[in-house]
Every structure is written in C-alpha cells, then in structure tokens.
TrEMBL record:
Its main location: mitochondrion. Belongs to the ETF beta-subunit/FixA family. Heterodimer of an alpha and a beta subunit. Its cofactor is FAD; AMP. GO terms for molecular function: electron transfer activity. It is found in: Mitochondrion matrix. The electron transfer flavoprotein serves as a specific electron acceptor for several dehydrogenases, including five acyl-CoA dehydrogenases, glutaryl-CoA and sarcosine dehydrogenase. It transfers the electrons to the main mitochondrial respiratory chain via ETF-ubiquinone oxidoreductase (ETF dehydrogenase). GO terms for cellular component: mitochondrial matrix. One of its GO terms (biological process) is fatty acid beta-oxidation using acyl-CoA dehydrogenase. InterPro entries: ETF_a/b_N (IPR014730), ETF_b (IPR012255), ETF_beta_N (IPR033948), Rossmann-like_a/b/a_fold (IPR014729). This is Probable electron transfer flavoprotein subunit beta. CDD domains: ETF_beta (cd01714). It comes from Pterulicium gracile. Binds 1 FAD per dimer. Binds 1 AMP per subunit.
Length: 270
C-alpha cells in the first residue's frame, strides 16, 4: 500500500529534564539527595531520541504525520519541551507535578506514558505508532522505563538502538541494537518502543528562527490526576553519601619493593 493512501504515522518522544551532563554531582547538606540548584538540560539520550524522530520524518516525509514530545516533571520541565520543539518536534505534553514532590519511579513514568498513549488514541484520534526514548536517564541510570512501557502496552521493543530503518509503508522497523561484544539486528512491527544509544546519531543545534517558532507550538499541560495516575514513589531514600575519597598512591623503584609493599598491605600470593 502506498504511504499516501494509508494512515500517517504518529511518533511520541518522552523526554526528561536532568542535571546537565557537564555538572559535577554533589550530595546536598541534608544527605537526602544530590544538589539540584545547578544547571539542568534535556537528558542526552532523550535528545538523541528527538533527533532520531526528526530524521525519520525527513526520510519518510509523506508517511509521518506528527512528532509529539512529553515530559513528566516539575514546572521547569517545560524548558526541555521547548528545546525539543525548537529542534523540530510539532507539539508537547507536560505532565506537571510540584517542585516539592519526589521524583517518580520508572514504573510510574511508564504507567503515565501508557495513559497518554491510550488518551491520544481515544480522545485525539491520533494513535501512537512509535515511541522513541533514551535508553536511560543520566540522573538515576535506571534504564527501565522503555522496557516497562513496552511490557505494559504489549508492544515489541528494541533497546539500545544504534541504527533505525523505518519501513513506513510496511509499518515495521529494522533496528540495530548494541549488545555485549557487538550488535544484533531486530525487526518489529509497529506499534513498538525503541530506546536510543549514543551511536544512533548526533543531535542538531536549534537555530534562532526555530527557537522563536517553538514559542508558538502547542504544549498541553496535564496533572497526574487527569490521567488517573499516582506518581508517589514506592521506595524511600533514607540517606545518600559521597563515596570514600581515593587515597593517594605511591611510587616504587623495583618489583621487589612493590612485592614488599603489597605484603605490608596484607595481600598474599595466590
């Protein structure tokens, strides 16, 4: 079937506002978490996901209808939504919770995304065909949301993608994924979930005209209750502490001296 005679595809890209990757992480004085009074930006793996969605539309101009981004976070998460819109996404959804609320766990995020996908199909008549998101967020490094979302939806999934070839007319995707010691190729039918790895692409910089255009693109604001979701974490962080400081090393002149130092430190020959 020719793409123009079929329903056009809709892509959803979940994105997260995280502490900027260049910031040195420090534990806060209360030892309850890290200091968040620092520069934030879009999670780098999610930025790759936004870029990939845009590139797929550039390759399949007549087959992809919309690219929508969604961020689940405090009020300032709107900043990363606007960044994604400036890159080329069409619209956004912001599921907002208070600054004082703890960060939701991956399962709650996955349930929220599932609710949004179901809402897009039922209320907006815009079924989601492909979800592209980062393989992990650099703040918690959980790497669970994409897999949980695919499980909740009963969709196929391809994680750690380093190459995506979308067959829009056949509604399928060939995905090269990173595995230990190499890569593997997977083929799946849409709808499906893909998580992005570093080698997939290099995100573009938003131009000034596109930044200005992004201010006029629609962003829908929702609360967790609008979706029937409770974001309250099931786990409580009791205490966070800095790792022990690395002790200074020492130089030795000979192998014999090295062996003697190791014995002094309590090491024994095997």
């Amino acid at each position: 079937m020719h793409p123009t005679s079929a329903r056009l595809l809709n892509i959803l890209v979940p994105i997260k506002r995280t502490i900027d990757y260049a910031v040195k992480i420090r534990v806060n004085p209360q030892n309850t978490g890290v200091d968040t009074n620092v520069k934030h930006s879009m999670n780098p793996f999610d930025e790759i996901a936004v870029e990939e969605a845009i590139r797929q539309r550039e390759r399949n101009k007549d087959a992809i209808k919309s690219i929508k981004v969604v961020s689940i976070g405090p009020p300032k998460a709107s900043e990363v939504i606007r960044s994604a819109l400036a890159m080329g996404a069409d619209s956004g959804i912001h599921v907002e919770y208070p600054d004082s609320a703890p960060s939701p766990e991956p399962l709650a995020i996955a349930k929220t995304l599932k609710a949004i996908i179901e809402r897009e199909a039922k209320e907006k008549n815009a079924p989601i065909d492909l979800v592209i998101l980062g393989k992990q967020a650099i703040d918690d490094d959980a790497g669970q949301t994409g897999q949980m979302l695919a499980g909740l939806l009963g969709w196929g999934q391809a994680t750690y993608a380093s190459k995506v070839e979308l067959d829009a007319s056949g509604k399928s995707a060939n995905v090269t994924t990173e595995i230990d010691g190499g890569s593997q190729q997977l083929k799946g039918q849409l709808p499906m979930v893909i998580t992005t790895d570093l080698r997939l692409n290099e995100p573009r910089y938003a131009s000034l005209p596109n930044i200005m255009k992004a201010k006029k693109k629609p962003v829908e604001k929702l609360s967790p209750s609008d979706l029937g979701i409770d974001l309250t974490p099931l786990l409580e962080t009791i205490r966070i502490s800095e790792p022990a400081k690395r002790q200074a090393g020492a130089k030795v002149e000979t192998v014999e001296e090295l062996v003697a130092k190791l014995k002094e430190a309590g090491f024994k020959a095997a």
